[in-house]
Write a structure and sequence with these properties.
18 strands; alpha+beta; Beta-Lactamase; single chain; six-stranded mixed β-sheet; 10 helices; 3 domains; Heat Shock Protein 90; rod-shaped; Helix Hairpins
């Protein structure tokens, strides 16, 4: 897979913007230069046209005719393409002209200020037309001066060459500056990426046996890299804690399995030590079978926990069935009713029909059974364990409350840890019950909370997202 370069992306973006700016500046420069050159050209053209007025005078005889003195003609700016002019008197009679030129052609384009443009032999010309201007010579003292029309045209090739030359120099200077800016941009961007490379190098040294991460000072001082640095530190701390918990979990699980296997092995060894009758072997085999059931329960819980965590990370919840929450709670209550009867603990359950959730019903039953089993086991005889289902606007709340001895404050924050054993009432068998409950509830976008007062009891609240707002009240069920 081809890799893109962030440096080249940034440099390309900056150079692209600079290229547009350079092109804009060159265009503006050429436009301004052309405007100024044309302004100077027009001023020169007007001066030359006005100088022709001084060359027109009255003849010295008594005819009072106008004559043109060609000895004082202004010089042309373009030797290869001389200036052109034509002079008419006020009656339209030709007084003078350059060569065979008789004035503006029919295809001339006029513009403001009596200026016009035309081409002659492919050469661009600009002309000025001065109509009915007075000559400087006068027929008599105080008498009116004669009026003439002057058309003067000059080649624009020199102006165009200067504009092209200015555009070339501006473009060359812009290209040189653009190349310098591109090099400086690449150098600056690469240099600015040094803290990121140092940060990546530090993060690359992290391993299972080496969790020390010290972000470079240059990375923490930059506002753009500070969030990334904090995220890396948080991620590494979480990974370190996760690996530590996993190692602790593996060790605790190995201990639990070893203990269960040791019990089974010792029971069999006792049976084989001395000859026994059939009844004694039967009783011993029944005890070993009970031990096997406990070992099987541990393995089953481990498999369920792994499956739920896999569902939480990678599962497709859209394929899950719609579970009736009330039915799962009723099934859990009926399962725990036998244990409650032996413990002389009453079960008080009430809820609302119609609450539904996209989930595996067996997972939900597992949660309710674990929570109810804990509440019943740690309640004194004659106590009541209550279970309630409440429909809210955005969530369904299932609460289970007992009147047991409660959980010690120092153990309350650790009750969901695997194989955690404290002094409180939730020191569960094999240490997996509440961990499984928490994993299942979080897999279905819910949360579980525990409130406990030592000596007064514990309340567990489970919040699950609301899938159906239909609720039909049902009568409380007591056991």
């Amino acid at each position: 897979m081809r890799r893109d370069s962030l440096t080249l992306r940034i440099a390309g973006g900056v150079v692209g913007i600079d290229l547009l700016l350079a092109a804009l500046l060159v265009s503006v420069g050429v436009f301004v230069a052309r405007t100024q050159l044309l302004s100077g050209f027009d001023a020169s053209l007007r001066n030359k046209a006005m100088s022709l007025r001084a060359l027109v005078r009255y003849a010295e005889d008594s005819s009072n005719d106008l004559i043109f003195d060609a000895s004082g003609l202004p010089s042309s700016s373009d030797v290869d393409h001389p200036d052109r002019f034509v002079v008419y008197d006020e009656r339209g009679q030709l007084l003078a002209r350059s060569g065979a030129w008789e004035g503006l052609p029919t295809n001339a384009r006029y513009s403001a200020g009596d200026f016009a443009r035309f081409r002659d032999g492919g050469v661009p010309f600009r002309a000025l037309v001065l109509r009915n201007i007075e000559i400087l010579d006068r027929e008599a003292e105080g008498g009116p001066a004669a009026r003439i029309t002057v058309i003067y045209a000059a080649s624009l090739l020199d102006v165009r060459r200067r504009v092209v030359l200015i555009g070339f120099y501006l473009g060359a200077a812009g290209a040189a500056l653009l190349a310098l800016v591109a090099w400086l941009t690449v150098w600056t961007v690469r240099r600015s990426h040094n803290p990121l490379h140092e940060l990546a190098a530090q993060a690359g040294q992290i391993s299972v046996g080496h969790w020390n991460f010290r972000a470079p000072r240059a990375a923490t001082s930059l506002s753009e890299l500070a969030p990334l640095t904090q995220a890396l530190e948080t991620l590494i701390n979480r990974l370190r804690d996760s690996f530590a918990n996993q190692r602790q979990f593996t060790g605790d699980l190995a201990h639990e399995l070893k203990t269960s296997i040791a019990i089974i092995k010792s029971s069999l060894q006792v049976l084989l030590q001395n000859p026994r009758d059939a009844e004694e072997y039967r009783a011993g085999a029944a005890g070993v079978l009970d031990d096997c059931d406990r070992l099987e329960s541990l393995v089953e819980r481990m498999l369920r926990l792994a499956r739920v965590e896999q569902l939480n990370d990678y599962g497709d919840r859209s394929r899950l069935p719609i579970a009736d929450l009330l039915a799962t709670c009723e099934a859990a209550v009926s399962r725990v009713a036998v244990l409650a009867g032996r413990k002389q603990v009453a079960l008080d359950f009430s809820g609302a029909a119609g609450a539904q959730l996209r989930a595996n019903p067996e997972d939900l039953e597992t949660v309710w059974i674990n929570l109810l089993d804990n509440a019943v086991r740690h309640s004194p005889p004659g106590a009541t364990v209550t279970m309630r289902i409440q429909n809210g606007d955005a969530a369904i709340v299932i609460s289970i409350e007992d009147a047991g001895q409660g959980i010690a404050p120092e153990d309350l924050s650790h009750v969901f840890e695997r194989f955690r054993r404290g002094d409180g009432q939730y020191s569960m068998s094999f240490g997996l019950g509440l961990a499984i409950c928490k994993a299942i509830i979080e897999a279905y976008d819910g949360r579980i909370e525990i409130q406990s007062i030592t000596g007064r009891g514990t309340k567990v609240s489970v919040h699950l997202p609301q899938n159906s707002r239909q609720a039909v009240a049902v009568a409380p069920v007591s056991t």
